[in-house]
Specification:
Elements (H helix, E strand, L loop, with lengths): L2 H22 L3 H19 L3 H19 L16 H19 L4 H20 L3 H6 L2 H15 L6 H23 L6
Helix pairs in contact: 1-2, 2-3, 2-7, 2-8, 3-5, 4-5, 5-7
Amino acid sequence: MGVEILILLLYLSLILGAAIGIKTKSFHQGLAILVFSSAFVAGIKYNESFIVVVSWFFLSILSSYLFYFEYERPLSRLEGDESVGDVILGYLIGFFIVLVLKLHGVGWVLSLLASYWAFHLMLLIDYGKNRRAFYLLKIPYIVLSSGALIEEFGTQGELLPFLIAYLACFVLWLKFDLPRMWRPPRIT
């Protein structure tokens, strides 16, 4: 795929995210779409082979879903499951993904984006009872996906308006949506 088509996909996702944000009066769903498109486009910009495109498609869906996922109840471990073995295994999986991707020539930011889901799930196990930590753990998806775009495309003139709009949506999400999400639900 040409660079123009990839940048067109980014702008189409920005329009779709803005339309959903206007309809729902929330930036959260729109940012989930932007996380997906940014991760997917950065991944296929690195390598356009079929298996890489399919892999990045599923990794982008996973990243977008974990960003979109809302806090419903505190995550808690079972009483008999107090070992740190699962958490260490999750961190090792994340480091293994970074190592494999770095050995194949993928950039640092793109490698961290591809492996953050493992770190995110393990951090949710550790801090899942804290509502604020649950939502703060979503911020690296936005930072890493925009950083991966810059890493793969550079600072091209066609990409800068998209990045500015993406970061503006992120700032608005931090200002308006995040405080609303931090509040526990009202019991009536």
